[in-house]
Amino acid sequence: MPQTIDRDKVRMDILCAFEKCMEIEPMSMVSLRDIAKVAGMSHANLLNYFDNKEDLIISYVRYARDFVADKCRRWFASHDRSDYDSNLSYMNDLLSYVAEGKLGETRPIATIQTYAIANYNPKISAIIREEFDEWHHVMAEYLTQVYGPEVGSKEAEAMMILIAGTFICNYTGALTGDINHNIIGTLGTLTRS
Asked: How many CB atoms lie within 10 A of CB 97?
């Protein structure tokens, strides 16, 4: 009897192999042969799952898009505002999660690279815009649920800026991370008269 192959699992395994390759060199330098080797398959077999490198990158960008929106939804669903002593501590906890994640949690590691290549690839650019549109929708939905109808699109956009910056700066190790548990509180000093 022939073995049944779970195509979605194999595609995900290939995307994970792609990520492993990008731990060593930038996306532009990673070849399909490199990815196939890390995935433990032949180059020809990899081409049964992705037509070419652009197809693989586009699939990776879609995976990152869906991952982030899902994680935001899950965070809000598992963190009730009433469990916090203030709005500040609630939102700081969200940003702390964005900065550091949960122990053992894997995250798409090449999102920053995909943002850069979006400038040169219209298909990837469109998916990145979809990603940010989805984030905006998720943030607006949950912020409105938590804070009421007076909070909406502008606050969601401000949170997206904080989330993207927090993620990028912590993921790349660009900053110390010393403020990860009080990002919004630290910004508060800038608004005092």
From this structure: 19
Residue from 3, 5, 114 nearest 54 by CA: 114
13 is in which domain, residue-wise?
1-50
Residue 30 to residue 135: CA distance in whole angstroms: 29
- Please state, in angstroms and rounded to a whole number, the distance separating the CA atoms of residues 4 and 140: 42
Residues 26, 52 contacting (CB under 8 angstroms): no
Residues 144 and 175 in one domain: yes
| Average per-residue pLDDT for the chain | 88
Q: For 58, how many CA atoms within 13 A lie in the half-sphere containing its CB?
A: 14
Is residue 192 predicted with pLDDT exceeding 80? no
pTM: 0.79
Which tokens in the block code for residue 132?
């940010």
Three-state DSSP state, 183: helix
Q: Are 73 and 129 in contact (CB under 8 A)?
A: no
Helix ranges (H only) for the chain are 7-22, 32-39, 43-46, 53-78, 87-100, 111-117, 122-147, 153-171, 183-191
Contacts of 100 (CB under 8 A, 6+ apart): 170, 177, 180
27 and 42 both lie in a single domain: yes
